[in-house]
Amino acid sequence: MMTSAEFLPYLKTVGTGPKRNRELTRDEIKIVIRAMLNQEILPEQASAFILGWRVRGESIEEFAGAIEVFDEFVKKAPLANSIEFGYPYDGKVKNPYLITLTAQYLQKFDVQLSLHGDLLQPAKGGTTLKEVCDNLPLTNNAHYFDRATYFPELHALSEIRAKLGLRSSFNTIEKLLNITESDTAIIGAFHKPFVEKYIALFKDRYKKLIIIKGNEGTPEIFSKCAVTIVENGEVNEIKIDPKAYGINYVKSTEPISLETSLELANNPSEDFIQLAKFNAAVILFLTSKVESIEAGLSAISPHHTEALA
């Protein structure tokens, strides 16, 4: 057990200003993260470290050490033929989630979707994947894991994070925790620097890592975006544009409520259905179940490719 006094030197590494702040070693950050997760320190100290770490800036070594500690706590639930999806825990603001509908079109291909979420984390203030999965019916190939169950120690920090009201370092590393020991992971990214961080942090944890610069930082494709594929030590980037496949969904530019988000997902328009099918086809292609997105669309909905022809 760590005392509050013993934690002070670690707090000083992020809280004494530019001249005296320093990066922690992997072993040091592991001590810090364990102390927070085990609630060995004062809530005020945990808050101060969370804020200071974010302001000072995190190193890849620190992130990697934190993830190693997460591995010690996460309750695993192995799931064969699964893909783990990394959604941001601060939610979506302007558009509904595609994933519950997309899952329907992947059922016949025995693609198991590993989804996880928790209470809303700062700072976007959107609708969370938890709210969607708690309120919409899920197909038998969509598996939702609530952090209160699979990682209660990190869930317990939700109150501190909510009171701070700011994005924290945990936002970056909580999106992929390999709960289901999946070989493939698909994670969303908003900014290019995060693509590089995700490659460094997750490339050795999955046989195939797919990073989609999707809608609102999620792994959902609503418009033209870049997709990075990391496999066998190689990194490749491709561009994917729904319009090239006859998909013309118009994204919302205004915030929507939880109720509206659920209604749009539960009673989708024809354009939204086509976008969900397109995302399913992209997943089939990126996971090498079909040779092309066109082949995926044909397998899901033969009439679609006939119309394109």
Cα radius of gyration in angstroms:
20 Å
Helix fraction by DSSP (H/I, runs of at least 4): 40-55%
- What is the succession of H and E elements? HHHHEHEHEHHHHEHEEEHHHH
CATH architecture of the largest domain: 3-Layer(aba) Sandwich
- The secondary-structure class comes to alpha/beta
Largest sheet: 7 strands, mixed
Describe it.
The chain is of the alpha/beta class and 309 residues long. The chain has two domains: 70 residues, Up-down Bundle (Transferase, Pyrimidine Nucleoside Phosphorylase, Chain A, domain 3), CATH 1.20.970; 192 residues, 3-Layer(aba) Sandwich (Pyrimidine Nucleoside Phosphorylase, Chain A, domain 2), CATH 3.40.1030.10. It is built from 15 helices and seven strands. A seven-stranded mixed β-sheet has the order 3-2-1-4-5-6-7, with helices on both faces. Strand 6 and strand 7 form a beta hairpin. Helix 13 packs across helix 14. It is globular and about 65 Å long. 42% of the residues are buried. The C terminus is likely disordered.
Produce the secondary structure layout.
Blueprint: H1 4-15, H2 26-37, H3 43-56, H4 60-73, E1 82-86, H5 99-104, E2 112-117, H6 129-135, E3 142-146, H7 147-150, H8 152-155, H9 158-164, H10 170-173, E4 184-188, H11 192-202, E5 208-212, E6 225-231, E7 234-240, H12 258-266, H13 270-286, H14 293-300, H15 302-308
Parallel strand pairs: 1-2, 1-4, 2-3, 4-5
Antiparallel strand pairs: 5-6, 6-7
Helix pairs in contact: 1-3, 2-4, 13-14, 14-15
